[in-house]
Amino acid sequence: MNAKQKMRHVLDVLAQMFPDAHCELNHSNPFELTIAVLLSAQCTDETVNKVTVNLFQKYKTPADYLSVPLEELENDIRRIGLFRSKAANIQKLCRIVIDKYDGEVPNTHEGLVELPGVGRKTANVVMSNAFGVPAIAVDTHVERVSKRLSFAKPDDTVLVVEQKLMKLVPREEWTITHHRLIFFGRYHCKAQSPQCHICPLIDLCKEGQKRMKAAEASKVKRKTTKK
């Protein structure tokens, strides 16, 4: 089958595996989602959610984040990796949102990526989840799965991976595909211990097939050694 047929098969399998895949970062508005995604860089969603439970109670608006010393905000997010730089970016972001966008997070990709700490991935997440604009945000899970299934080459940049996925996935399925690829990578096709032995996509994954062969060879070697 060609690349689009292969992708269609993968999309159908992922839909069966994770029909309810969704953004796991807790938020109640576009501003909170922007802050949560900014905090999630090099950090798990689980940890971010533990921090934002109290954070979003204390800080409701961009002005709230600017009303405290930077050191206080740093302390509030101390459990998050790179908390010092993230705290600084949050306050810079809030200043721009107030001065340039009347206190509201911009609803355009161009406006979002201009904000400190907000890269292309964060902008895509906010656009798709907060504003309903189809997008494929490529995080570490999406990148890993895309390369293992050979939809992208091992040395492709994140942007190239995104562009390739956008060509293969129907536009109306971009957002849900982003979530399902994340769920697949987070809970099944993990970085260190992928569940290759029960993977319904093993036939499409050369790396998985190599892992299975290596595991089988190791098992045979152990049996031979015991004899």
- CATH structural architecture of the largest domain: Orthogonal Bundle
Beta-strand content estimate:
under 5%
Radius of gyration: 20 Å
Low-confidence stretches: none
By CATH's scheme, which homologous superfamily of the largest domain applies?
Answer: Hypothetical protein, domain 2
Structural class, by secondary structure, is mainly alpha
Summary keywords:
mainly alpha, Endonuclease III, domain 1, 62% helix, Endonuclease III, metal ion binding, endonuclease, 4 iron, 4 sulfur cluster binding
What does this structure look like?
With 227 residues, this protein is mainly α. It has two domains: 1-193, Endonuclease III, domain 1 (Orthogonal Bundle), CATH 1.10.340.30; 196-226. The chain is 62% helix and 0% strand. It has helices spanning 3-17, 30-39, 45-58, 62-66, 70-76, 83-101, 109-113, 120-130, 140-148, 158-168, 174-187, 206-226. Helix 5 packs across helix 6 (83-101). The longest helix has 21 residues, at 206-226. 34% of the residues are buried. The model has no long low-confidence stretch (mean pLDDT 93).
